[in-house]
Structures are given as structure tokens and as C-alpha cells.
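#struct-help
A.M.: can someone run this one for me? Single chain, 590 residues.
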Amino acid sequence: MASFALPSIHDNADGSWGPATSDVPKRFQDVPYAPFSKSDKITHVADFIGETSTDGAAATATTARNARGGRGGGGARGNQREAYGASTAAATGNFGFERDEDERSFSLVDAGRVAGATRSRGTGLFVGRGRGRGGFTRGGAAGGRGGRGGAQSFGSSRGINGAYRGRGRGGYGGYNSWDKASPRMPLCKSPQRIRDWSITIGNDWDLLEEISFTRLQKLSLPVQLPEDLSIHGTIYSYNKQFDGVNTRNEKPLEVKDMLRYNTTTSDDPVINELAQKEEAQIYTTDAILSVLMTATRSVNSWDIVITKEGNNIYFDKREGGPFDFVTVNENAQDPPAEAEKDKADNINSPGSLSLEATYINSNFASQIVDDSKKKAFKNPNPFYSAEETEPLASCAYRYRKFDVSVGGDEEPINMVVRTEIDAYSGKKDQYITIKALNEFDSKAQGSGKAPDWRSKLDTQRGAVIATEMKNNSAKLARWTVQALLAGVEAMKLGFVSRAKPTDAQRHSILLVQTVKPRDVATQMNVSLNNGWGIVRMLIDRLRKQEDGRFVLVKDPNNPMLRLYSLPEGDGLLEAVDEEADAATEDAHYD
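D.P.: on it. C-alpha cells below:
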């Protein structure tokens, strides 16, 4: 009978993989015992020489190589064989290099291609093609509140002619291209510019609702023509000589020290009288209402103080707040940036540009009218007192009642709006409003790629206007809505530029354009029905609340509105009024 003899087994007493050192021929003792690649036809029961290192760096590197190599794991070429066994062990296994303790925190990062982020080349945050210099974005980080120094005045102490300390708030500009995904880099998004709130949110304020712009854009309410209640004040005739102004025949902007009032709703004596007569349930001004109706175009933060007393609701502004100043390039892709601390007097900062634009609008409206031809209405200016010595600017206040009811069996809901008329043109019954766009420096940061007006305004006027509609979409939409609410036939739109780009004190009128509000609304896609829908939505929410005071705030960094309920006796309007009055005592615009 045949016998079976067991082969001798070489037991490795030290427990490591492979034969004992004493059993290995001398010429193979320093060679790792492992296959070199997957193609080697060496059969074995198990492979324990894998990614056994606790270091973690090799495993990360292997994952990165596999991610780059795709299905075959062969890197960019795709035809290399996948290494494992000894090739891996050479880097990670028991035969690999052992790092010191202080190097164990180091790990490799996959620098391979990522879909949608491979096209970046220059100074963006993401690196692409191995040549990027990742780091800071061109948009930079917007500064915070611009401070209240450098007080400037350009007229009387009231209204938009009033002198208020410069309150340049970070980010007087639009969502720029560095805040959004680039069309070339749809997945690359730099940090969004952080803007300041127009008002400090109190810890004891109760947040009632957050309303996104997406919801607001879907609202619509058709409103019939309003009823004229009364008209107050005196207006002058438009000076037709300014129709001949152009870049070759420019006129310097003059300083007109004339009174123009921008009184808030609850301080209006005419509105208070109408409220006592229960003429309506909602009371506001065209300046406040136009911002609310075009809220979805807003980028900067603003706030409306709302008071509910029984059936009456009042929409107010804070004295010296955002409603008293004109923004510049709010919707530009690359808006004006806040000045650095060591350059607080930067004339191209958002706060300085806002003061400059307000100063220009006030004086421009007073300069292009002929004060020798006037039309005084039966009711005098409700805010002008006998103690005033300065002359009144051309302005009439037209109080109109709008029916914002939905219809059906609903009880009527009426709104009284105080609208403004700046002058009349031609026939005395052709009312107009007067506004001014301003150019500061076409080469400065924040100009929104606007063409140079002096070289393009006469030959490429359409391109200039189109750029302004893009960079100042919110401002122009508000002006258009104000004109439509007032029922004027035309708008006189001025183009005012600095005499020198570095001089914010002297300006020149380059052009006066006559436009019809409805044509501008059509061109800019401004929908009054959508605006009235926004107003009615807010009214419905307020009517469900108890009597008290509320604040509607535009979120500065998100496309939404926030409605807060204020605690009793907050004194919000009164505190801001005192602060604004104190700022006018020593403020002067040279």
C-alpha cells in the first residue's frame, strides 16, 4: 500500500508574513515578499499587504490616484496598470517609509479635475489647469458700516435737502459677478459680499414672517385709476433752454439753497386730517410705496416702520434713513466698495456717492425750472411755515386715493398716497417729475462698466441708458413708479457728471432727456399689478395683527423681506429723529 508523506512546513516563529529569515536565501533576504503588480501570475490564498498604514496619507493618495484614473485607475493616460501589493506596500505597508510623529498630520489633497471647476485660470478662488493663483477674489470683502464722520450738507435741514451725517453702509451696491457663479465656472462661487442692515434688529423684536422675493414676484392685483383728493404747493415751469444741453454745450450744476420737504407719513398734517375723516384705511407716501412695490429689485437694505391703530395703518420712514438718500449703482455687477479705514474720505465709497447723488438730484431739480413762471395751487405747501426764510423749491403734493380691494363681497380697502409733482411743462396741466442720473468715474471700481458719458452720450445714447437701467434698476424703477402714482405725463431725466473724475464738488449737466413713465416701465418690465399685489399681501398680514408698531426690513444679504413686531413703547421713530436733527447742526457740504 502506497504511503503519503507530509511535506515539511517551515514555520515562521516571529509571526511575520513569509518564511523565516533563516530559511530565505541570502540574496533574497532584503527583497519584500509580495507580488509587484496585478498582472503577475502568482497565485496566493490571501493578500495581507494592503493599505495597512495608520498614517492615512497613503490611503488618501491612492484614492486620489484612483479618482484621477477613472475606471482603470491609470491616471490621465488611462492605460497604466493598477498597482497594488508590493507597489502599494513600497509607499504604505510594513516596508514603506515611516514618517516622524510631527509629519502624521500631513495629508494629500486631490488636485485632480472637478467637473465645472476646471476652467478657472486667474485670480479666482479656485485653481484650474495648474496655473491658478487661488486666494482672494476681485470683489474683495465689503467693509462694514461706513461711519458717521465727514458730515455733509447741501441745503436746508429738512427733507432730501437736509444735512445728515454720512452713513455709508457696507455694500451700497448690487450682487456682483463675484457674488454669483460665473458662466464659465458654474460651480465656482466666491464669498458673497456682506452688507449691513439698514436698522439694528433688537433682541426683543418678534419675527412674524419671512417673505422671499420668489413669492413676491408671483403676486398681482389690478388697481383702477385713483381719485384725486387735493393738491398743495407751488410748481414752476420747466426751462426749455435745457433741451439744448449736450456734451458740447454742457452747463455747470449750480447750488440752489431751496427748501424741499420729505416729511414722513404720520407727520403729514393733511394725512392726519384725512385719517380723522376716515377717508381710507392705509396711509403712505409715494417714496415709501414705490420702494415696496419694486422690492424685488432691491439689493441694499431698507426698512419701513408700520403703525397699526384700529382700522388705520401708517407706513413711515425713519428720518435720515435710506429713504432720504439716492443710491448709486446698486444693481451693478461690480458695485462701489466700502472705503478702507485709512481711506475714509474716499469719494467713490457707497456712502459718499449716495450723498453726492442726493445733492445732485436736489440742485438739478431746482436749476432746470424757471422761477419766473409759476403755478400756485389753492392749498399752500402744508409743511412751510411763516418762520421760514429760505425760498421753497418747485414742488406740489398731490394726495390720491387708491382702491386696493380685491372685489366681490369684500369691504372696500382704500389707500391714501401723498405723491409729488416737480414742475409743469408747456401747458400748465402737463405735470412732470425731475430726476438725475450721475456719473462719477467710468474707470473707477464700482462704475459698472459704464461708458464715458462725454464721449458716448451724444453718439451712443442708447448704450448709456441701457447701462444705467442695468446698474440702477432699483432706483429707476422706483422713480418710474413714483411718476405713475403721481399721474404725471413725463419725466425729465438729467445726466450729470463730475467736472473732473477726482472732484466730487463740481458737476456739469450733459443732457436732459424727456421720457414717458409708461414707456420706461415697459422697457424695464416694471409691473404695477405686481407692485399692488405686494402691497395688498402686506396689508392682509398687518390687518390680522393686534394694534402696535411693526418694521418691514429688506434683508441685506438675502432676497427676502422680514416683518418684525416691536415691543410696546419702543420709541424707534423718535430716537432716530433726534439723532438726525443733531447731525444737521454742524454738517455742511462745501
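A.M.: thanks! The first strand starts at residue 206 and ends at 212.
D.P.: also worth noting: Confidence is low (pLDDT under 50) at residues 51-191, 575-590.
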